[in-house]
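F.,

This is the one I mentioned.
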């Protein structure tokens, strides 16, 4: 069984499989297609430099690269003055979820997590939130559909919770799709803390237009 088939079989066992990076000794013209088909998120040609490998691992896990981490540390603390917000994080990837929850917790926010869209809807029924961070690709109900359902429930109730999309693919057209589903803003992964806090500040301070 080759690496592609192995990756496919691993992915079929569990939707919460950690990201798979393929190591290859030669590149072939259909690599990109075959990787996408087997849900391999990245690949590297051997011999692999350790710094390159480390950066790629950090990238697929949604962590900033070492250069970016260094840049963040050099920046003055531009983090939000806002603290103590009640935030729902809907994200099916455990690594990303932990990273975001830790980041928000460090800034004094009160965080509830949902592992998928269904859990997010339960959380919304039970709790009120100042802002929701919503992954787009989730099992059962994805982020776009969950957002549509939340907006449906809110309509008439006279409230509108800001929703920020978290998306792995910063593709053209994604932002429009998010906004059309009723989201307010969009942050692409890997998540940069400064950007995330800026967007949270913006969506929680803007007067929100209530649905008519
Ligand atoms: Mn996801």
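My design for it:
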């Amino acid at each position: 069984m080759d690496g592609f088939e192995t990756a496919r079989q691993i992915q079929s066992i569990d939707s919460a499989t950690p990201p798979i990076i393929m190591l290859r000794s030669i590149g072939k013209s259909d690599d990109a297609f075959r990787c996408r088909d087997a849900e391999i998120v990245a690949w590297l040609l051997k011999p692999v430099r350790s710094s390159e490998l480390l950066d790629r691992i950090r990238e697929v896990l949604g962590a900033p690269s070492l250069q970016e981490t260094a840049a963040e540390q050099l920046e003055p603390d531009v983090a939000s003055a806002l603290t103590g917000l009640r935030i729902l994080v809907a994200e099916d990837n455990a690594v990303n979820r932990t990273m975001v929850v830790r980041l928000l917790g460090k800034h004094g926010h009160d965080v509830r997590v949902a592992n998928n869209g269904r859990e997010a809807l339960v959380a919304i029924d039970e709790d009120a939130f100042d802002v929701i961070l919503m992954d787009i690709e989730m099992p059962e109900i994805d982020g776009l559909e969950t957002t549509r359902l939340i907006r449906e429930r809110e309509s008439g109730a006279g409230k509108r919770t800001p929703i920020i999309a978290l998306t792995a693919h910063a593709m053209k057209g994604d932002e429009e799709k998010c906004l059309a589903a009723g989201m307010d803003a969009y942050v692409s992964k890997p998540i940069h803390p400064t950007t995330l806090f800026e967007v949270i500040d913006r969506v929680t301070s803007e007067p929100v237009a209530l649905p008519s």
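The beta strands are 21-24, 42-45, 86-90, 110-114, 131-135, 163-167, 185-188.

Talk soon.
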